[in-house]
Amino acid sequence: MTSLSLPAPAKLNRLLRICGRRANGYHELQTLFQLLDHGDTLYVTALTHSNDIDLAPAMPEIATEDNLIVRAARLLQQETGCRAGARFKLEKRLPMGGGLGGGSSNAATALLALNHLWELKLDIETLATLGLRLGADVPVFVRGHTAWAEGVGERLVPVDLPNSWFVVIHPGVAVSTAAVFGDDGLTRDSAIISMRDALDGADADAAWRNDCERVVRARYPEVDRALTWLGQYGAAMLTGTGACVFCPLESEARAIEVLGRVPDEWHAFKAQSCTRSPLHQHLGIA
Ligand SMILES: C[C@@](CO)(OP(=O)(O)O)[C@H](O)COP(=O)(O)OP(=O)(O)OC[C@H]1O[C@@H](n2ccc(N)nc2=O)[C@H](O)[C@@H]1O
Ligand SMILES: Nc1ncnc2c1ncn2[C@@H]1O[C@H](COP(=O)(O)OP(=O)(O)O)[C@@H](O)[C@H]1O
Question: Where is the signal peptide (predicted)?
């Protein structure tokens, strides 16, 4: 087969703790990545007669060579010496800079697709290590399991969370991850807790929060308004550094009901949790 149509799912950060800062400025985190059944679709065709990498449609916000999909393909060519090329078509549904990991997920889907189509036979461990060079959130999408994460997001432990539905709102602003991490008001001293305590032990109540939320609410009034609005229906939270906010709901029917009430000014969707990534299910990766 020389072509594939593959999902690039979104993630939510069900909790995000900032526990310190490394000498290179990057922050030490503890987070719980929840994969969703909603995301982008990437069409990939392998080219045997040329080593060109191209992507359509062009994304006006990003130069094609900077696109994480193209960078993922180039990285694989460099690391393996592969002389094949690829043509990508992206159906984008996830907002950029939304905290849903769309760009990282696109990159992970490109890595797994080309590993398959170019018959590179790299294992998941190697692909996750390569993915980390593209972004902190790429490894979780390469591994394809809802996971507890530490470090900058690269030390992952797969977890099974109860099935849940979510309403996700994009409040129409783009949040700069670098600006949030650079804010003087950001607290960076959350205690490191054990995964077990965070999930169902002593720290469970206090742990399910996002340390970026206070700074993001103050910098972006629209995010603040969306969180307050969604908070009427449950434990609304910010995902990553935003801008999206989400609320877990007990059933699809309840998610449809809340979605129907979202003010017209905001884009929103409903999604179901996934323990295994739809990408891995599609590729038949165990
Ligand atoms: C914090 C998270 C949680 O999922 O936020 P979201 O991006 O999803 O909102 C991510 O780990 C983000 O990962 P990612 O979006 O890949 O970040 P990168 O491109 O690697 O980094 C963007 C910038 O954010 C800062 N940064 C990022 C991650 C980190 N652990 N510490 C940081 O200080 C750095 O200034 C970096 O230059
Ligand atoms: N294919 C892509 N899709 C989205 N963003 C991309 C892509 N390639 C590069 N980027 C860059 O990555 C940044 C982060 O995008 P994204 O992963 O969608 O958001 P977040 O990290 O907030 O979850 C974007 O602002 C954009 O500059």
Answer: none
Q: With beta carbons less than 8 A apart as the criterion, state whether 187 and 18 touch.
A: yes
- Residue 65 DSSP one-character state: G
Cα 279 to Cα 2: distance, rounded to the nearest angstrom = 17
Determine whether the annotation assigns residue 139 to a binding site. Answer: no
**What digits encode the pLDDT tens for the residues 202-251?**
666 678 999 999 999 999 999 999 999 999 999 999 999 999 999 999 99
What is the CATH classification number for the domain harbouring 243?
A: 3.30.70.890
Contact 83, 118 (CB under 8 A): no
pLDDT (tens digit, 9 = 90+) per residue, 112-151?
A: 999 999 999 999 999 999 999 999 999 999 999 999 999 9
- Interface confidence, given as ipTM, is 0.95
CA dihedral 211, 214, 220, 223 (to 10 degrees): 80
Measured CA distances, 164 to 14, 224, 227 (Å):
12, 24, 19
CA dist., res. 264 & res. 164, Å (int) = 25
Q: DSSP label at 35?
A: E
95 lines ligand 2 (CB under 6 A): no
E strands present in 48-151:
53-56, 85-91, 147-151
Q: What is the pTM of this model?
A: 0.96
242 is in an annotated binding site: no
Task: Report if residue 266 sits inside a domain.
Answer: yes
Ligand 1: distance of its center to the CA of 33 in Å? Answer: 14
Residues 88 and 179 in one domain: no
